[in-house]
Amino acid sequence: MGGFTLDDILAARKSRDSWWTVFLVDPLACRLALVVANHTSITPNGLTRLSMAVGAGSAVAFAEGALALGAVLFYLSFTVDCMDGKIARLKGTGTPFGLWLDYVGDRIRVVACAFGLGFGEYTRSGDTDYIFAAMGVIVLDLFRYINGPQLKRVKEATRDLALSRMGGDCAFVEDVLRTRPRTEVGEVAAEDGRTLVDLQKEFHARFPWYDRFRVFLVRRRVRTHVISGIEFHAAVFVVAPLLGMWAVVPVAAGTGALLLAFEMSLVYRVWLAARQIPASAPEGERILV
Questions:
Q1: Membrane-spanning residues where (predicted)?
Q2: 230: region left, alpha or beta (phi > 0 left; psi from -120 to 50 alpha)
């Protein structure tokens, strides 16, 4: 039905993604997406619904105590979930409603699997720690999805304030890095000669190693948020069940703490940027805020 190649699929990947996706999911997801693109008429929304169905199977397997099966089904559910975006970008068949469906499908899968795993283990062992672990997973997952949009609002307000203080005539380092991600901060320059504003100057001063780490990850198509929801879900719903029932609570607690720490690091960076906006700035001067 199509003449797509693996290179076409690879070109349809996100420019950067989680390390779990890049190294442990995309090698399979890209090859499955190639088969789907060339030999089926399945739409991205159809793949999302399939992902939700497989995720529901994972939740049932967890509830029944089939932990290894549940882990495999969760991995496959996420793999299919990674395919819908590739097909949408490759064929141009994505829809605005698909964004909502993908988002809600992810949340339903996490909640269902958390309940299946936590309450399933509780009914078999009588240990309430599994219930607390399940609730903790759900709360942390919801927190990061609330935290993200709010941090985005603060970042946008900070940029708007910087623009107004600079008379609207400035360029942001983060925008330059977005177009040239392999460039180190110290080498950034505005092509049009505008004043260059680095809202992360204080963060870079406190953590000088960070930019080298960022470039190292960029070259491997990995984003810097190394413990995101994806890694959290993989640890709780794939790694822990494969290790056995004993691993569920400690793995959920440990990776949950890491996830929270990384979310707080994002808050910290936004706070540093927000407090660095100058009250005034000389015209034409290169400002590293």
A1: 20-38, 50-76, 222-240, 246-268
A2: alpha
Give the model confidence (pLDDT) of 251-260 as tens digits.
Answer: 999 999 999 9
> Quick check: is 95 in a domain?
yes
User: Mean of the per-residue pLDDT values for the chain?
Assistant: 91
275 vs 158: CA distance, rounded Å: 9
In a domain, 283, yes or no: no
Strand pairing class (195-197; 170-172): parallel
> Which residue did the predictor score with more confidence, 126 or 185?
126
How many degrees, rounded to 5, is the angle at CA 224 between CA 12 and CA 194? 85
Q: What's the predicted TM-score (pTM) here?
A: 0.92
Residue 1 in domain:
no
The total number of residues shown for the chain amounts to 289
Residue 285 lies in a domain: no
- Residue 210, SS3? helix
**H or E element at residue 254:** helix 248-274
Per-residue pLDDT band for 2 (boundaries 50, 70, 90) equals confident
What gap in Å lies between CA 288 and CA 178, rounded to an integer? Answer: 17
Terminal alpha carbon distance of the chain? 54
**What pLDDT is recorded for position 111?**
97
Q: Is a pLDDT exceeding 80 seen at residue 194? A: no
Split into its structural domains, the chain has a count of 1
CATH number at residue 15: 1.20.120.1760
Structural domain including 223 reads 6-274
